[in-house]
Amino acid sequence: MDRPPIVAKCDRKRVFSSWSPYCGNVAPREFEIEFSSVRCLSPQEFIEKLAKDLGVSGVVAGENYRFGYKAAGDAAELVKLCEEYGMGAYIINPVMDKNQLSISINSSNPNDRGQVSSTRVRRALAVGDMKYVSELLGRRHRLILKAKNQEVFTYNKHKLSAPKSCLLNLAPKEGFYENCYLIVGEKLVPCRVVIDTAQIHIEMDDIGTSNYFGTEDLKLLRIEFGNSQS
């Protein structure tokens, strides 16, 4: 079974848009190709495909990047091949984790030199440390749930619940999370989140859920986690 992504596929465009200040005020666009179409290519064949078939003008990669069949190519070869095919190549240093306490949940990986990685984010979610997750991502973690088939979200005056089967991305561990937000349109509604074995519960004070949703059928929930720990 495929493991859930950290960012829901439907939320990736929002994340890319947040990168625009670092990309010449242009939001990156995602383009997917089937891995099966490139998995057996040599490093040179892979770069040739980027240049000739896909019209790529430049490549950005980390210093430990490997590519080509059996990861035969490294960052140095990437620069060399890109130059041969008239493309720019930019090798960047890893973003390092500044949290000195993180070693306790990341020490099992011998290749971990302290760099930010998806593995590190997943482990932080697994222990429910949302402050640490926010530091690693550079933003609050957003959880998205979508009602499918006969599944429904249920709500009353102060509580909204959804089955875990509606999750589109990776949730933190079971527990109680304060300082969260339910996103309704452009509004951030303060809430608390309780995650149990089967459900995600969203609790709100003062203002009932009906004030935000009325009688509309609920199909999509977006939750942002604050800097709390389960």
What are the defining features of this structure?
single chain; 230 residues; alpha+beta; UDP-galactose 4-epimerase, domain 1; 3 domains; 7-stranded antiparallel β-sheet; two-stranded parallel sheet; 7 helices; elongated
Taking the alpha carbons of the first and last residues, their distance comes to 27 Å
- The strand order across the widest sheet is 3-9-6-7-8-5-4
Write down the Rg.
21 Å
Q: Can you summarize the main beta sheet?
A: 7 strands, antiparallel
Give the mean pLDDT: 88
Count of runs of 4 or more consecutive helical residues: 7
Report helical residue fraction: 10-25%
Helix-strand sequence: HHEHEHHHEEEEEEHE
Please state the overall shape, judged from the principal axes of the Cα atoms: elongated
Oligomer: single chain
Strands, total number? 9
Structural class: alpha+beta
Work out the strand percent: 15-25%
Count of structural domains = 3
Low-confidence stretches: none
